[in-house]
Amino acid sequence: NELRRAAIINLENYRIEKYRCQQENNLVKTSTHSYPDGVNDFRLNIANKQAKAFYEQHGIQPQETAFELQSGHKGKVLMTTKHCIKYQYDQCPRRQKPLRLWKEPLMLCDKNHTYRLEFDCDACLMRINMM
Q1: Which of 4, 12, 56, 128 gives a 20 to 30 Å CA spacing to 77?
Q2: Phi, psi for 9 (deg, rounded to 5)
Q3: How far is CA 107 from CA 35, 71, 75, 103, 130, in A?
């Protein structure tokens, strides 16, 4: 038992000696890579100082904070997806022959919000916009 206690004490002392604070590893490191996209709005998802520093380091001056930190969402694209509700219900003019096309614009509703669906059939994308 004494040998086990001594081993645990030695192990604890070793770990304390070798411990490095997590914050040291989270510092933004300088990089010469350019940011490839021309996006400069809420889609950059800037929710903290480190994210802002990253984009500034890459030559982008962020214009907006992350979507969830904003209060005015009207007209913003909530999500872009390859999963298309038109395709799901055999209404895709590109891949299917619909018997009767739905009247657009299509809307999704929940208790609190209404979302407008926008379709880019050439790129096979569906966007969900805040109303």
Answers
A1: 56
A2: -60, -45
A3: 34, 21, 13, 11, 10
Token pair 């999704």 is found at 108
**Going by C-beta distance under 8 Å and a sequence separation of 6 or more, which residues neighbour residue 26?**
50
Backbone angles phi, psi at 87, to 5 degrees: -65, -45
Please report, in tens digits, the pLDDT of each residue of the chain (131 residues total).
999 999 999 999 999 888 876 665 666 666 677 766 677 787 888 899 988 888 888 888 888 888 888 887 787 888 889 998 988 888 888 888 877 778 889 999 999 888 999 999 889 999 998 87
Using DSSP bridges, classify how beta strands 114-120 and 125-130 pair: parallel, antiparallel or unpaired. antiparallel
Contacts with 98 (C-beta within 8 Å, 6 or more apart), sequence order: 90, 91, 92
Can you say whether residue 57 is alpha, beta or left, with left for phi > 0 and alpha for psi between -120 and 50 degrees? alpha
DSSP type of residue 30: P
112 C-beta neighbours (distance < 10 Å), count: 5
